[in-house]
Predict the 3D structure of the following.
Amino acid sequence: MKTLMVLLLLLLGIVPAHGAPDCDAPNLPDCIVVDALDGPVHERIGTYAATLKLHNGPAKQNVVVSYEFVDGTAKQGVDYLAEPGGMVTIKAGEPQAFVPYTVLRVGKEQKQFTLQITSVQPGKIGKPVAVFTIGGRR
């Protein structure tokens, strides 16, 4: 019975899904949510940028995001180069910020590494991990 009531309230829009607050005011700390966006498949050596995006649109205040790059099959200093960790500020009124990295080598097999959000101030982490793929040669 309780489940049926919750479903009915969700359908009527009285209770937001996933327990998330109603974010008509995207500057409340519970409404400031940052997502790490997956990157494209890189088939060339070069400098690129990881995107950290505000889920509910620009905030009226600066949002500081801490992150770290984590090796997968792609290795730091061999296949790609990036600051292992750090902070980036999404400035007030902006929808996103970027973290640079460089693809150093493209081999025959696909390799991956990730960027993980470790904290958001003020706010919270939405999609915590972005996956980056260095594609194999054709």
